[in-house]
C-alpha cells in the first residue's frame, strides 16, 4: 500500500516558519520582484495564478527531467555549497574578480534575473505536472469504471443463466430420475471483486457455452432414444436450447465490455497517479524555495544599488539600506524552512519513483490519491501563511522604498514646474518690453514726420504706396498702446503671484 509522503513534521515545520518571527502572518501577495503579467495581484511567472488544466500525458520520465533541471539549480542552496553559489555570481566576469560595489550590484542583479527565469520555468513545470496527474487519474477512473461494467455484466449473466441451468437439469430425466448435467455458474462472483474470480467466471461461461453446444450436437442424433439410458424427455431439448440462447446473448454483451476493460487497464498501467502526485509536490516545493531565493537576490541587488546613492534617504528612523539589510535574517530563515520541505519532497520522489514500486493491487487508486491530495493541500495552505511572514516584510520595505522614490519624484516635478512657470513669466515680460519699445519707436517716428512736414497736411498727394500719416498715425499709436497694456497685465499678475 502507498505510504503518505508529506509527513506531519513537514507540516509542522511550515507552520513554524510563520510563528518564529514576531507579528501575525497573513496570506501573502505574489512578490513583485520581476516584470510579470499582473492580474489581481497574482502572477503567471511565479505560479501564483490559477491555471486550469486538462488531462495531458506528460510521462513520469518527463516530469523527472523537468524537476531535475530545477533541482540542479537549487542543489547548491540545498546543500549549503557557498563556494558553488559564489562561483556562479563571479562566473560572468571576464577580467578577473572585480571587488567594486558596482560589480557586486551587477552580480546580484544577474543572479536575481536567473532566479526569476528559474521561477517561471518551475511554474510551467507545476502546470505540466498537474496536467499529468489529471491524466493518470482520468485513465485510472476510466479503467475502474470499465472493470465494474465488465464485472456487473458477468454477475448479471450468472443471475440470468443459473435458473436456466436448473431448468435444463430438471428436465433431463431417464426412467423418472433427474440427472444433473450442468453446474451452476461462479456464484462466488456475486460477493467478491477479486479479479482472479472474474477471470475464472468468464472461463466457466465460455466452457459452459462449448459444453451446451456439444450437448445440442448429441441431442440432434437420429437414434438418440435407441437405449433406455439415453432416453431424452421431450421437454429437455427446449430447455437446453433456451440455455444456449441465454449464454450466447450474454457473451455477445460481455465480450466488448471485457475487451474495453482490458484495454483501459493496460492504458492505466502505463502511468501512476501517486508517483505523478509526488512530482507535483516536488515542483511546488521547488517553486516556493525559488520565490525566497529570488527575494534574497532582489533585496541584495537593491541594498548594493543604494550604496552612495542619493535615493538612500532616511525613512522611519533608518536609511533604506538599513531597512533592506534587516530583511536578510527573515529571508534566510524562510529559505531554510522551504529547503527542508523541498528535501522531504525530493526524498519522496526518490523513494516512490526511482526506488520503490508504488502501484496498488488494482487501478482503483482514488482513496489513496484523495488522502495524499488532502495532506498536500494542508501543507500548501499552511505554507501560504508561513511564507506570508517574509513576503509581507519584504513588501513593507518595498513600499517604503516606493514611497521615498515617489516623494523624490514629486519634488523634482514641482521644481521643474516652478522653473517652467518662471520661464513663461519672463517670456511674457520680454514681450511686454518689446511692445513698449515698438510704441516708443512709432511715436518717435510720428513726431519726426510732423517736424519734416511743418504740420501741413495739404501737400500734393502725388506719392503712391504710402498712407496719410497725419490722418492715421494717432489711431495706430492708440492701438499699439492698447496692445501693450494687454500684454503687460499678465506680466503684472505674475509679479503679484510672486
From TrEMBL:
Residues crossing the lipid bilayer are: 472-492
Q: Where is this region: Disordered?
A: 445-466
Q: Where is the signal peptide?
A: 1-30
Keywords assigned by UniProt, alphabetized: Membrane, Signal, Transmembrane, Transmembrane helix
- The name on file for this protein is PS2
Native species of this protein?
Corynebacterium glutamicum (strain R)
